[in-house]
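Our preliminary data section would be incomplete without showing what the modeling component actually yields. Below, a chain of 186 amino acids is followed by its predicted structure, encoded as tokens that our downstream tools consume directly.
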Amino acid sequence: MAQIAVEKLTLEEFLKLPETKPANEYIDGRIIQKPMPQGKHSRLQGRLVTAINAVVEPQRIALAFPELRCTFAGRSIVPDVAVFAWDRIPVDENGDVANTFAAAPDWTIEILSPDQSQTKVTGNILHCLSHGSKMGWLVDPDERSLLVYPLGQQPQLLQEPTQVLPVPDLVAMQLAADELFGWLKL
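Predicted structure:
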């Protein structure tokens, strides 16, 4: 994880910088580049977005977005999956999805990469929960485990293959841990 040292860079100045691949995040006055997604990360991210949207999009309940910049409460972060309730999705003057999201997602999902700091990722999840998110997930593909952060409750470590994973109320989806990690098999 690369940190870029820039003296006195404000959030507004950060947001004027060109986007990078992988994305930079602005956390506590520092620019931190996310690691380049690898195979397991990309596979889980794609399948989660597809599975969530299959349940919520037809009824216009919510939308899951991959790698969406969310800027709120002094940070600009890019969760691996950001799920927004339909009525909270910002729109532009044409009624299209806006390019700028200035709020925490209702559900934030992070997929741990091998060289990523679990503490930094957990910090982003906790920041989201402190500013409007209902739930956060930290998925660890190598450990085949999931840390679930329900709003206002003790985090839960889920490692049993048949456990049904908790999801926010707005997403009526049943997903077991073995199904989630089964997406990694070809």
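The two ends are 29 Å apart (CA to CA). The longest strand covers residues 135-140. Preliminary results of this kind motivate Aim 1 of the renewal.
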